[in-house]
Every structure is written in structure tokens, then in C-alpha cells.
UniProtKB/TrEMBL annotation:
InterPro entries: Talin_IBS2B, TLNRD1. Residues 1-20 are annotated as: Disordered. This is Talin rod domain-containing protein 1. PANTHER family: TALIN ROD DOMAIN-CONTAINING PROTEIN 1. Actin-binding protein which may have an oncogenic function and regulates cell proliferation, migration and invasion in cancer cells. The keyword 4Fe-4S does not apply. Keywords: Acetylation.
């Protein structure tokens, strides 16, 4: 056994790490994976509810990895090819997550799941846009008319702000690392900036005096609440204490309320423009593609839930084998969903009979209408 260690007086045996510290270190990657599962599941469900369960046909405007569908890939064919290529990337990530979990690499599995969640969101956005393009290409269709506000994007921002504030409320002081606080602050700032810019533009373009002023007042209320919360975040980062942490929880509430009120006002029907008018043929094409995308999303939600269950149970648990079997089955469902989506895009029709009622899909996802 080693007789000494760096920084120890010679002859003094190195002290083993306390059992509690070892257990805490081992549990941290598991806890993070559980948190990542919850975040990814919520994000995928929200996007599915907004884009796949909607009865309206509208183009999808987005940023990031999905931007090529709305920008460089305006044609249905280009959008279709982008989606099919991304289903292959999704299959690779699904395999990676399984392998990492089987090897006990919970940290790496969490990183891969973040990528997977982002890819599913991108895939969903592109699929919804492709469904719109296919629907308005049918005879007699009238394209959508844009409004002052994009309901999808501002609702996504509201959700991200709510998630960030929930992290601040739920995270113990010991887990409030500088990196976590930085990520939360950056996420809040990014989404608040988008809401500010979107509502300022809507205010400028609005013809109604009350609406112009209400957008400005809503942004002012949101900005004031955000400044108060971010000051608390900076304080807990500079001088961590339970009092500083409790202030973060205290001031997160007003921000959530201010954002909810602003987005609620911004998404009133008069600000949203008009959805496309499509024939029964166009509706059938749209439904087929959205149904294929829902097959992918629902399978990925199940996969995420299986990962969460595995992360919460010790390796020797009697239920572990059942959880691993469920994980394998859900991974197969992801692969099948990708195949169904690809077929629907190629054929512009459903490759198999899909349930006629969206409530069946809601039961799988556990979502409510936003």
C-alpha cells in the first residue's frame, strides 16, 4: 500500500475518500442524466404538441440546425432529403446512448441525449415545414399569411424560460455550480432577447394603439423581472449561500408570470396571421407526414423515459433487466419510426394506417394542448 501522497507529510498514509463522498461522486452523473431526460422529454413533447398535433397548416420558421429547411431548402424535395439524412443521425445517436449506458458511462449518455433531443426537435420542425410545403402544393391550396407574431417560436421561448427558472428553484445549493449558473443565465438571456425583439417588431407593425402600447409595457415588465432575477443569479455565483439561492427561487416566479402574460397576449388570434387553406387531398398529405414524424417523437419520448428509469435504479436492481429490455424495444421503435417518416415523405402518403384521433398520440406523450 502506498506510504504517502503528494502534499502529505512523509510517512503519513493517504486517507481514502469518505464513502459518502465516493457515493456522491458516483451519483452525480446519474442525477444529471435524470435531469437531462426530464428536460429533453419536455422539449420534445412541447414541440410535438405545437407542430404535429396542430390542425393548422403553417410554415415553420426556426434557427439552428433546422434552419436549412426554411432557408436553403425551400422546396419540398430539399426538405425531404434533409430530414431523411437526419433520421440516419438519429439512429447513430440512439445506438450511442444504449452503448454508453450499458458501459455505465452516464455522463456520456447524458451528453448524447442532449444531442438526440436537439436532433428530434430539428427533425420535428423540418417535418412540419415539409408537411406544409406538400399540403400547399396540392391543387386549390391557398398559402398561409404571416402575422405579427410566430406562435411557435414565442411559445418555445416561454417554455425555455420556465425550464430555466424551474432549474433555479429545484437545484440544491451544493449543485449550483458556476457552469450550471452560466448555462441557465445564457439560456434565459437568449430567450428573453428573442421575445423582446419579436414583440418590439409586433408593436411597430401593429395598427392598433392599445396593442402597440401593450407590447411595450409587457416587454418592460418582463425586462424588469429578468434584471431582478439575473442579479440574484450573479450573487449566488459570487457568494453562494442558502439565502442567495432562495432569492433566485423567489424572483423566478415574477419572471415566469411576466413572460406568460406577454406570450399569452402576443399569441392572441389577431396577431397570428392566417393558416393555409388546403383541400382534403392536401390535408391527407399533411397528416401522413406529421403522423410519420409523430412515430419518431413518441418513440424517442419512450426511449428517454427508459433512460430515466435506468439512471434511477442501482445496477443490481431486480428491475434492471426489465428496464434494459424496454430500452432495446424503444430503440427499435425509434428505428421503425424513422422508416415510417422516410416512407411518408417519399410517397406523400401514410405507409400504414395511423390512428384517426390525436388523443391516442396524446396518451403516448402525456401532453396537453398548449
Amino acid at each position: 500500500m502506498a506510504s504517502g501522497s503528494a502534499g502529505k507529510p512523509s510517512g503519513e498514509a493517504a486517507s481514502p475518500a469518505p464513502a459518502s463522498a465516493v457515493g456522491a461522486a458516483c451519483s452525480q452523473p446519474r442525477k444529471r442524466l435524470v435531469s437531462v431526460c426530464d428536460h429533453c422529454k419536455g422539449k420534445m413533447q412541447l414541440v410535438a404538441d405545437l407542430l404535429l398535433l396542430s390542425s393548422e397548416a403553417r410554415p415553420v420558421l426556426f434557427e439552428g440546425p433546422a434552419a436549412s429547411c426554411a432557408g436553403a431548402a425551400e422546396s419540398f424535395e430539399q426538405c425531404r432529403d434533409t430530414i431523411i439524412a437526419r433520421t440516419k443521425g438519429l439512429s447513430i445517436l440512439t445506438h450511442d446512448v444504449q452503448s454508453q449506458l450499458n458501459m455505465g458511462r452516464f455522463g456520456e449518455a447524458g451528453d448524447s441525449l442532449v444531442e438526440l433531443g436537439d436532433l428530434v426537435v430539428s427533425l420535428t420542425e423540418c417535418s412540419a415545414h415539409a408537411a406544409y410545403l406538400a399540403a400547399v402544393a396540392t391543387p386549390g391550396a391557398q398559402p398561409a399569411q404571416p402575422g405579427l407574431v410566430d406562435r411557435y417560436r414565442v411559445t418555445r421561448c416561454r417554455h425555455e424560460v420556465e425550464q430555466g427558472c424551474a432549474v433555479l428553484r429545484a437545484t440544491p445549493l451544493a449543485d449550483m455550480t458556476p457552469q450550471l449558473l452560466l448555462e441557465v443565465s445564457q439560456g434565459l438571456s437568449r430567450n428573453l432577447k428573442f421575445l423582446t425583439d419579436a414583440c418590439a417588431l409586433a408593436s411597430d407593425k401593429s395598427r392598433d394603439r392599445f396593442s402597440r402600447e401593450q407590447f411595450k409595457l409587457g416587454v418592460k415588465c418582463m425586462s424588469t423581472s429578468a434584471s431582478a432575477l439575473l442579479a440574484c443569479v450573479r450573487e449566488v455565483k459570487a457568494a453562494p449561500s442558502e439565502l442567495a439561492r432562495s432569492r433566485c427561487a423567489l424572483f423566478s416566479g415574477p419572471l415566469v408570470q411576466a413572460v406568460s402574460a406577454l406570450v399569452g397576449f402576443a399569441t392572441e388570434p389577431q396577431f397570428l396571421g392566417r393558416a393555409a387553406a388546403v383541400s382534403a387531398e392536401g390535408k391527407a398529405v399533411q397528416t401522413a407526414i406529421l403522423g410519420g414524424a409523430m412515430s419518431v417523437v413518441s418513440a424517442c419520448v419512450l426511449l428517454t423515459q427508459c433512460l430515466r428509469d435506468l439512471a434511477q435504479h442501482p445496477d443490481g436492481s431486480a428491475k434492471m433487466s426489465d428496464h434494459r429490455e424496454r430500452l432495446r424495444n424503444s430503440a427499435c421503435a425509434v428505428s421503425e419510426g424513422c422508416t415510417l417518416l422516410s416512407q411518408a415523405l417519399r410517397e406523400r402518403s401514410s405507409p400504414r394506417t395511423l390512428p384517426p384521433q390525436s388523443c391516442w398520440i396524446r396518451r403516448i406523450l402525456g401532453v396537453e394542448r398548449v
